# Entry
Amino acid sequence: MAKDKKFRKKKKLGSYPFVSVVFSVTLALFVMGLFGLLLMMTKNLTTIIQENVEMQVFLNKNLSQNEITKIIKTLSSKDYVINKEGISQVSHITKEEAAKEFYEETGEDFVEFLGDNPLRDVVVIKISPEFHESQNLVEIKKEIGFIRGVHEVTYIESLVNSIRENVKKVSFVLIGFSVILLTVVVILINNTIKLALFSQRFLIRSMQLVGATTNFIRKPFLMRASMFGLVSAVLAIGLLASLMRYLNTEVDGLLELLQLEQLIVLGTGIVLIGIFVGFMSTFAAIRKYMKMSLDELY
# Structure
């Protein structure tokens, strides 16, 4: 009996199970981060799809090169045309290029058969996602139609409407899942820390009985909780990075759907949530145990 007492390890103020708490918090943050990556990839993929919505501007026949160049410059200056790195997403396809492309796809040379090329030069513009509403597209089509030298303006209205509606549905679903998942993660981390602190409730009462101040009791718990949150966040980020490297070897171009700035924001968010939730959960649990009577602690 005396030997057992000799080797009995004393509890240290602020200490509670390291492995179980870090494992649980890491798992919660990993799941949250995984969903965050899915959210970012979905958003970026949606943007790519939206940025490929095109309008075809068919030109009148027998226009001079200067007239065609003027039309292209006019379209390039419009705010509804996508501009990437200072380059307007406007392309010019000549009727000769269109005939050649048709021949390569079908193997039929209609120019030789007809003795003439009935196609028209076309300028293809990519419409910015902010202008994908039906009314905006109608107004854009009408505006371009008034440009001198333009014969006709077309776009696939049903495709644009389908993309817009699907983007709205996906956005609502992802926002809903985000709120639910964030709530679950916070509750899981909170309950994990509360359960870990449960074993410290009598030590907290003992410190109160010997005259320790509230801040003196709280400080080691809050410091350790913050450290656990930071360690868990770093482990979660490491697991996410390893998973993404593996998935990129299986799915070509997967990492192209992610941007460095977004990854930095996600990583920072995981760290802040890990530390903040751990700190606040510990603060609330300590306050609860310090207000309990001895009978309630049992």
Summary: The longest strand covers residues 54-59. The CA atoms of residues 190 and 281 lie 5 Å apart. Confidence is low (pLDDT under 50) at residues 1-8. Residues 157-198 form the longest helix (42 residues).
